[in-house]
Amino acid sequence: MPAYAIAHLRNVTLNQGIVDYLERIDATLVPFGGRFLIHGGAKELCEGEVTDDIVILAFPGMGLARAWYNSPDYQAIRPLRMRGAEGEIFLIEGVGDDHRATDILPAEKADRV
After folding, report:
1. What is the model's pLDDT at position 51?
2. What is the pLDDT of residue 107?
3. Structure pTM?
4. From residue 96, how far is each of 3, 15, 63, 101, 105 by CA, in Å?
5. Which of 21, 42, 87, 108 is most buried, judging by how many CB atoms fall within 10 Å of its CB?
6. In a domain, 78, yes or no
7. How many domains does the chain fold into?
8. Measured between alpha carbons, how far is 31 from 10 in angstroms, rounded to an integer?
9. CATH number, domain with residue 77
10. Which residue ranges traverse the bilayer (predicted)?
């Protein structure tokens, strides 16, 4: 099952630390099969308000996502990001290609749908 690292970043300052972080992060992803799906980018607002930056990295599985985040190479550059941005970072499991919205319902409720 795929897994994702999601960063919800605000107050990003393009300082030397962030530049160094950006120059080094790609190499940390390679051993774990990680890749960028979203990295900032233009937003088209449909509902609510979003002023922050979103970054989504994809990994083949949760074990690899966790191993990347905890790797010595990523942990070495993490402070660079933290000095230039505030926000939340989390890992989350994805779903398979055959996933349907009702798959998250308890079995007794799914039977009524």
Report:
1. 84
2. 77
3. 0.88
4. 10, 39, 16, 12, 16
5. 21
6. yes
7. 1
8. 28
9. 3.30.70.100
10. none
